[in-house]
Amino acid sequence: MVGLNTDRKANFKKGIDAAECRRGREDTQIRLRKNKKEESLAKRRNFANVKGPAENAGVTVNQTGATATKRVFTEADIPMLLPGMQNLMGDKEVLLESVRGFRRMLSLEINPPVAAVMNCGALPLFVQMLNLNDHPTIQFEAAWALTNVASTEFTSKVVEANALPALVALLRSPDADVREQCAWCLGNIAGDSPPLRDTVLNCGAMEPLLLNIENPATPAMLQNMVWALSNFCRGKPQPDLHVIAPAVPHLSRMLTSNNQDAIVDACWALSYLCDGSDDRIQLVQDSGATEHLVSLLSHESASVVTPALRCLGNFVSGSDRQTQAVVDAGVLDKITGLLASSKKTIKKETCWLLSNIAAGTRMQIASLIAMPQVLSVVIHYAQTAEWEIRKEATWVVSNIATMGSGHQVKRLVELGAIDAICSILDITDARICLVALDAMESILKSGSQLGLTTYPTLVDEADGLEKLESLQGHANVDIYEKSIALLETYFGVEDEVEDENLAPVVTGNTFGFGVQEKAFEWTGSAEDEAKWSGALGDEALTPALQPFSFNANNMNM
């Protein structure tokens, strides 16, 4: 049955096949992932205003109970602090104060001296301190320092210093603060690039991270653990499915969490995992995430709605069965609110989702046709919205026009689809112009089959005919050929036929050019006709065709 559906889609239309109709995020996902306001950052720094164990990061309390501001360490303090870290077996209080001084230095919000810290040789000392299991406070400070180094362009240096084995091992530390800080550092490393992400995963970080998500010590820990997990899932090429698969049930459960930040990161993580092949989509759908994601579309926060919508959009870019699962979960009930959102990204991604449903089965298209108010908004967006929204809305209209039945196309036209399609024909985006031309061809063909002769007139009234004629000079060959074909097929515009009177008449070995012989009709009086006939002869009134011969015998050379 799947094969039949695939064949039906592939053969339904010539211009843009079903793989084009049902689109993933290849063309826009890089730009979308750079939008840091809508997506959690790949790296996070732990600033000095974050509380650590046994320390209120901003102030200290002296013996009299008075508060004093903590000292701010700068690059100038490196010569003083470094000796205190060089003897790991020495005084642990000195060691703690020294590493804490470096950590505060690296936690400065503006221009932390990371390069100077690297150059003084402190990085391998931080890594060695991770092995001091009897001193969790020192481990915490060292992990914090490494976290902030990993949040910069020096991420790979942390890996080169062989920090990963100790960081992964400390995800099982009995100290919750140490576990959380090590997860934070690992999240920064994984978020740097796919190669470093895979290095983290190959060190076995997934299993202990999931244990912390199952049993978080605090809500803040849960939030950081899920964020780190989202970085384990992000990036292309994507991580191996068998390595990342154990995370999916945990992420799915996070969708019902009371922690909004954890929900956001879980949604993004799932969207990374299901962005691609059908087997990845199926893995996420099998976790029971679909219904929860649909429910989150009604969330009051756009930071939740956006990744949930992205994830569902990935689902409907898969097979017909996977698309139907999203429809069955009630996604269409949420569309009206999504299209009315004040967020451009949400409107655009909603139209993208609808375009993929419109590329499905006739039953799935029928579910859209049954929502005329929604389609009216989409058609309106195809004409007037900002370009990114308008482009996706055009795909919705085109997919229904090319994949739908004649009566479904008729309903689309009644809602104003022809005006929308014609409005696209003069844009500079060649790909979308072809999408619009395909839609027009399908609409006109469907109208012809149904005996609806008014469609060409509607195109003309929407300035479509004039735009089609202009496209005959388009530099894109496909657009040129498509516009010519539409004009000739539906608007009676044909190439000029050669005047039959100019065709040569062959007589033996001669070629004659001229008008065909016709009887000369006298329009004067009978008396004048007789006078002229007598003077010139009858043949003067009926002149015969005189062929011009190319015979060489008759030519003066």
Explain this structure.
The protein is an all-alpha fold. It has helices at residues 2-12, 18-21, 29-33, 78-85, 92-106, 114-119, 122-129, 136-150, 155-160, 164-169, 176-192, 194-202, 206-214, 219-233, 241-244, 247-254, 260-273, 278-285, 289-296, 302-315, 320-328, 335-339, 344-358, 362-369, 372-384, 387-403, 406-414, 417-424, 430-449, 455-461, 464-471, 477-490, 526-536, and strands at 59-61, 67-69, 505-507, 510-512. The longest helix is centred in the C-terminal third of the chain and has 20 residues, at 430-449. Residues 1-16, 25-40, 49-68, 495-507, 509-520 and 534-557 have low confidence and may be disordered.
In short, what is this structure?
The protein has 557 residues and is an all-alpha fold. The protein is built from 33 helices and four strands.
SSE map:
Layout: H1 2-12, H2 18-21, H3 29-33, E1 59-61, E2 67-69, H4 78-85, H5 92-106, H6 114-119, H7 122-129, H8 136-150, H9 155-160, H10 164-169, H11 176-192, H12 194-202, H13 206-214, H14 219-233, H15 241-244, H16 247-254, H17 260-273, H18 278-285, H19 289-296, H20 302-315, H21 320-328, H22 335-339, H23 344-358, H24 362-369, H25 372-384, H26 387-403, H27 406-414, H28 417-424, H29 430-449, H30 455-461, H31 464-471, H32 477-490, E3 505-507, E4 510-512, H33 526-536
Antiparallel strand pairs: 1-2, 3-4
Helix pairs in contact: 4-5, 5-8, 7-8, 8-11, 11-12, 11-14, 13-14, 14-17, 16-17, 17-20, 19-20, 20-23, 23-26, 25-26, 25-28, 26-29, 27-29, 28-29, 29-32, 31-32
Mean pLDDT: 84
Our measurement of the CA-to-CA distance between the termini, rounded to an integer number of angstroms, reads 78 Å
* Helix amount: 55-70%
Number of strands: 4
> Which strand order spans the largest sheet, edge to edge or round the barrel?
1-2
The total count of helices amounts to 33
Biggest sheet details? 2 strands, antiparallel
- Identify the overall geometry: elongated
Q: What percent strand? A: under 5%
Radius of gyration: 37 Å
Structural class: mainly alpha
Residue stretches low in confidence (pLDDT < 50, at least 5 long) are 1-16, 25-40, 49-68, 495-507, 509-520, 534-557
